[in-house]
Known about the structure:
The complex is a heterodimer of chains A (408) and B (119).
Chain A: H1 2-28, H2 31-52, H3 58-76, H4 84-100, H5 109-116, H6 123-133, H7 139-146, H8 150-166, H9 178-194, H10 212-225, H11 231-244, H12 269-284, H13 290-307, H14 312-325, H15 329-342, H16 345-353, H17 357-360, H18 364-376, H19 380-392, H20 397-407
Chain B: E1 2-9, H1 11-15, H2 20-27, H3 29-38, E2 42-47, E3 55-60, E4 63-68, E5 77-85, H4 89-96, E6 106-111
Antiparallel strand pairs in B: 1-5, 1-6, 2-5, 3-4
Amino acid sequence: MKDTARRAIERAARDSRSRLLAFLAARSHDLAAAEDALSDAFRAALETWPRDGVPDKPEAWLLTAARRRLIDAARHAKVHAEATPELLAALDDAQSVTRDDAHAFPDERLKLLFVCAHPAIDAAARTPLMLQTVLGLDAARIASAFLVKPSAMGQRLSRVKTKIRDAGIAFEIPRGDELPERLDAVLEAIYAAYGSGWDDVAGADPRRKGLATEALELGALLVRLLPDEPEVPGLSALMLYCESRRGARRGPDDEYVPLSEQDLTQWSQPMIEQADRLLRKAEHMGRLGRFQLEAAIQSVHAQRARTGNTDWESIALLYEGLVRIAPTIGARVGRAAAVARARDAQSGWALLQQIPEQAVAGYQPYWALAAHLLDRMGRGDEAHAARERAIGLCEDAAMRTYLVRQQD
Amino acid sequence: MKYSILIFDTPETASRFHGPEGAQYMSQWQPFIKALTDAGIYVAGAGLQPPDTATTLRFNGDKRLVQDGPYADTKEQLGGFYMIDVPDLDTALEWAARTPRLPGQAFEVRPNLIPSGKQ
Lengths: 408, 119
């Protein structure tokens, strides 16, 4: 009995927590209050289910309990007293949807994702907010991944939720003209959880460690919720291509293995095939975008597992397109690396030098690539200085060791 | 805002200083300090000799007590520190994460006291 109840609660927490939260928050417009109410509901379930048995519709039970608590909380908070009738009305439809079928209550997580990446919210807070509300990650874990003091992360998240409530940020799916830009912010926030595309440049620094699985999960969720926007499968494809090489990135002694030397048998073929399918699906929609281009670049790399070589001309061409629509430093450095492979080191170096020095002062992959190209051009002293800079800026221990070895 | 990054060693990490791994580790420091200097944020820093070289001085009222060894009798001992001048804690943590490291070391990031009358 106890075990059955516990398992039911765990299942509900895993499968339905974010749907319940999105549903409640979309109606109360108060994320923090909805989270509190839902936590209370789960706590109540832990008390009553082992005693009285698991209800027929666990989610409906949780929703009703959380709804009751939200209303109580609103009544007690005098400042928001005027909002109570409205809230009551909004939550009434929560009551009616749960009466018939536990699974009939609408999935509002897409609205929640758009709220998390709303332009009124500080860009640095968007990904942490998504991870907390949609995936239920705790602030301490998010803080570690983002290199932020945990108490500061907690405060930032609660400030953002207050802003959502007080500014009345709408829980809605943007329409028409607004959609592409708003969607881009959602995709950016998900990709920020994955980290930068580590492999395309010699010496790329993997950031945001430990959140790859979460980013893939958010990407897959968005593919289900918003199937008609090509950049959505584009992003998932990109992350899957990168993820397919995870096992090959480190050698037996945990040393860094550059893309060109990776053991191809260690690339995950199922992931590559899934990424291929997603990218094809995106391409069929006929609207090119930044993430599709980045995914396409990775798909060319992935083809090496079949053909044994890399088509650098194609990669350079794809980077050309990418730099045109999204001229980020990462894309510009990636293009220089690809052009250096496709043509010669001088051509790559010329492109690198067009990037303003100020923009790359702290950007490690730039210096790693600069060292590599300077070496190839026979400019040893300059290569040494550039590599030293790459080592100094490096965060990844395996990568640092790799660069130090090259220095000798 | 100035931050001190305190590097803590354990007997296990300290033993790694010897041998090829230690040489590897030490060779990473010069580029790191150079990166801090190039970024215009380096203030000061030092690596310390092992804790058994320490002498601890204490006072009981006016009575002096001089002891062999480090102050704290703990497994974790201060192995070195460096100080940087950066806008905020996030930036300090970003640099702290780039510190050359041996497995098992810990890095404590602490803001310096602001001298009165200064910002």
